[in-house]
């Protein structure tokens, strides 16, 4: 089959979890004998595609015109992030006044105005954010989520669609790179905390940076600044103590080496649909702590300790315990992680396209 994987314009210039998901999905499908094209929004579709797979329901402007004109099978991996909690910190007055969908509409326009993204199509400007998401859901033949809580969240506001989401829903988690599963322990003494992800309000790195500085914990922060949130990156730098190091976005192999050197990975995000990096760390034997928010409460329960980050005293105590030499919270065997390779996920995607 000829399969198009459609994603945001900045998929490569501002890499994130969806970048890993798209690239690894394409590689797994190609190993199964399919031809895959990674298409960033704003570019033309290749000819003779059998299926078009869009990633990120929260950016419907990227898919509307493609779904409208593409005659073949249409699939969407929703990757639907709830930015409301982060936006309440960034734009407290606007959030109260406009609500999450209108805020996202304004963000889409702002990215176009500052040149960091393409201008949305006329249909998006006419429909707005929420109705555009409904339109994309309606036009999709298959809707994929990585958790049931994600499906529940979407179903709560997407009523009155022409076809039920539940009827065309598939639950497919994300995969793990083989190097994180089939890897021998380094044997070196592990220490310190690791954060991996684009530096932005949603990822909530600032909270951990402040805690690490206050408690003199060694912390390595890996990731580039969100190009539209440079003030947040500046706050992180200014809040960091002597034991906090910043490293730009790294290759998978370099992330693996960093994980092998650290004892604890923290995922402090206000929201994550599915944290690949947390699963990768757990597969390597790191302790993992995640913020107790949807959808992480479901997707990371098997591989991490989930803590309420609004309860500072309790969370700091848990972090301290996980940094102690010899501490281990490993919940699963390596054989269990082998069920989550990208090749295994590719087989599930292949069934969806048929």
In brief, what are we looking at here?
This protein has 16 helices and twelve strands.
Features:
single chain, 354 residues, alpha/beta, Rossmann fold, six-stranded parallel β-sheet
Task: Describe what this molecule looks like in 3D.
The strands form two sheets. A six-stranded parallel sheet has the order 2-1-3-4-5-6, sandwiched between helices. The protein has 16 helices and twelve strands. The protein folds into two domains: 2-82 and 129-172, Glycogen Phosphorylase B (Rossmann fold), CATH 3.40.50.2000; 179-337, Rossmann fold, CATH 3.40.50.2000. The chain has 354 residues and is α/β, with parallel strands linked by helices. It has helices spanning 17-31, 64-69, 84-90, 92-98, 100-113, 122-139, 148-157, 178-181, 205-215, 230-239, 252-261, 276-283, 296-299, 312-323, 334-337, 342-353, and strands spanning 2-7, 35-40, 51-55, 73-77, 142-145, 169-171, 193-196, 219-222, 244-247, 264-267, 287-291, 305-307.
Write the layout of secondary structure elements.
Blueprint lengths: L1 E6 L9 H15 L3 E6 L10 E5 L8 H6 L3 E5 L6 H7 L1 H7 L1 H14 L8 H18 L2 E4 L2 H10 L11 E3 L6 H4 L11 E4 L8 H11 L3 E4 L7 H10 L4 E4 L4 H10 L2 E4 L8 H8 L3 E5 L4 H4 L5 E3 L4 H12 L10 H4 L4 H12 L1
Parallel strand pairs: 1-2, 1-3, 3-4, 4-5, 5-6, 7-8, 7-10, 8-9, 10-11, 11-12
Helix pairs in contact: 1-16, 3-4, 9-10
CATH architecture type of the largest domain: 3-Layer(aba) Sandwich
The structural class is alpha/beta
Mean of residue pLDDT values? 91
Number of domains: 2
Instruction: Work out the strand percent.
Output: 5-15%
Helix content: 40-55%
Order of helices and strands: EHEEHEHHHHEHEHEHEHEHEHEHEHHH
CATH topology of the largest domain: Rossmann fold
Instruction: Estimate the global geometry from the Cα principal axes.
Output: globular
Oligomer: single chain
CATH superfamily placement of the largest domain: Glycogen Phosphorylase B
CATH class of the largest domain: Alpha Beta
What does the radius of gyration come to? 20 Å
What strand order characterises the main sheet? 2-1-3-4-5-6
Distance between the amino and carboxyl termini? 9 Å
List low-confidence stretches. none
Number of strands: 12
How would a crystallographer describe the biggest sheet? 6 strands, parallel
Number of helices: 16
